[in-house]
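Batch 3, record 17
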Amino acid sequence: MAIAKEPLPPPGWGLESIASVLEAFPRGQLSEIVGPRSAGSSSLLTALLARATAAGDLVALVDGPDAFDPAGAAAAGAELRSLCWVRGGGRLDAACRAAELLARCGGFAWVALDLAADLTGPARTPPTFAPATWIRLQRAVRDTPTRLIVHASRHLAGSAAALVLAVERGPARWMGSPRPRRLDGLGSRVRVLRARPPAPIGGGSGTEWVVAWRL
Amino acid sequence: MAALRRLGCLLVPGFAAAAAVRAEPALAGQPLVVLDEARPGRRVLETDGTARALGIVPGMTEAAALARPGGVICRERVAAHEAAAQAALLEVALAHSPRVEEGGPGEVYLDAAGLGALFGDEAALARRLAAATAAAGLPARVGIAGSRVAAHLAARWGAGAERVPPEGDAAYLAPAPLGLLGLPVEMARRLERWGLRTLGELAALPARELFERLGAEGPRFQALARGEDPRPLLPWRPPRRFEETRELDWAADNLEPLFALFAELADRVCARLEGEALAADLFEWSCRVAAARGPGREVRGSFVPPVPTREAGAVMAVLRATLAATPPTGAVTALTLRAQPVRMLAAQEPLTGEPRPSPRALAETIARVIGLVGAGNLGVPVLLDTHRPDAIRLEPLNVRAQVLAHVSSPPGGGRGPGEGGVLTLRRLRPPRPAQVRLVGGRPVHLRSDGLAGAVVASAGPWRVSGEWWLESRWGADEWDVELTDGTLGRLAHDGSAWVLEGVYD
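Prediction for the assembled complex:
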């Protein structure tokens, strides 16, 4: 389906905008949502999963670091009955193989592979993956009706990804002044880092939105 | 000329009590009381004849029943005992007639026509049925008549093995008391005010006037009082067991021969399911592992396929992954595979929606993924009914249930994407220990595994607690914090130590 040419309203602010972002992820292709810690990329992924499961789609979430919060997803409107949660327990290589199998099966409308490392400060080194990983994932999902989304802290899949959305951190919003009383939410900037032709989003690379997430 | 309709009824009065005595024969002849489920103030559900003679009636409290003299014995109702007793009653009926109907707990009907050549006349058949049920441990009463209701009433009202002459149902029932019919209280009172005492008196009333005074229920009970019940017998079929077993002359001590043997069993079970146009939504397997002495021990397991299936390949894919993950420890001397059958529902693929997966492909994929991550790490998340943080459990993926649930109850709840995006917490499992420096009771610096920095904003404490009435009580003070690098986290202090529960993203 063609996406409107004019800049989209921020995803998360309206039903239509989230639906448009959903349509932006191409079937039978590998896409990426990337962003550093606390940028809002997990919130974007959760919003997509919520929208897909609420529409009755069968969704698989391969949760490499075992960080998924089902209660938060339910609060975002996710229909948990339609969600197959695969807990990787930190074994990211096993998570990649599981996502490959699920994508190849073709039985899931969406397969999300979460590889985001939450706490990778100076004491920890970020995980590394063989370049062939992304080619295998891309080939696994090809010719299937499945949308495969990799969620990571940084762009990993290289040219294997048809669409890459980069989420950048915006200011956190606190309620109460001068002393904060409650965390109200977070602002994010979502930018199209890569959109392989045909561009699934009007405007192609460089298109961006400002997104607000509320706690 | 139509064949004469003859039906028999096997009736076990006080079925729950009879089932308890059957399971525990030492209770026979003692004043027995069967209680409903275990809870404070529970009540008497049923009694046997001895307890009834002591004045104990259903509905009494347990305390009131125990207060009666006579050494009353109380037993809780056990569903398994009742199921076994019901199966025994059905087996007795099936041993005498090919057409049997299950009327309810302790109540079975059978087609008694044309059995003369096998068992003699009907009186002999009734005696034989009574003797057979007694031998099965159940004190059944037997009635044979021309209709179901007449046979039932004859069993209740008769001498224990009663036979009503052909075409004589109404005449036989005429002197029976009205109370046998189980009339609604209000109707029973009205009939009593009219001076009616027997079924014959009710049967003799003009139907039109009865309808005008009692409505449709009046003529219906009048027909029952005459023994008129035209409904045909609804044949009951014993549940099919889709189970295959293989005893080995040798002991299999590695997985490959087990896979081949289980594949044979899966082929047979699935072929039988296909023959009945059924599928299975649960497969149970067991292996008997040889022991140095004795018969050995059973290793059991089960799995739920994502969709009901009768494809041996899909079954074997899951079974292979399961056995490979947890192989039986020891040499196997026998294997069994059992399927729980369900009716296959024809599902039409939507024209515009997402295509549904092939059952076999999905089952095989799930099995392989389970082999990668472990059986306890794949499923549908279910939120538990508690406020305890991260209280969840995983249930097996069932695509059929997911489709039916979505059709029957469109999703709702949650803030939903239409009302604004929700900030998600990425949980750290288990929560990471943290060192938190406080100034004025508020966090000002955080150090944890892979994370450190000054706190530039914080909100809290938010008290969460629960189950204070249990040993497993829990509680913590939660804080939302923002570090200098922009990281948003959730801290918790349980009174003794700080932990980092997760990171907002």
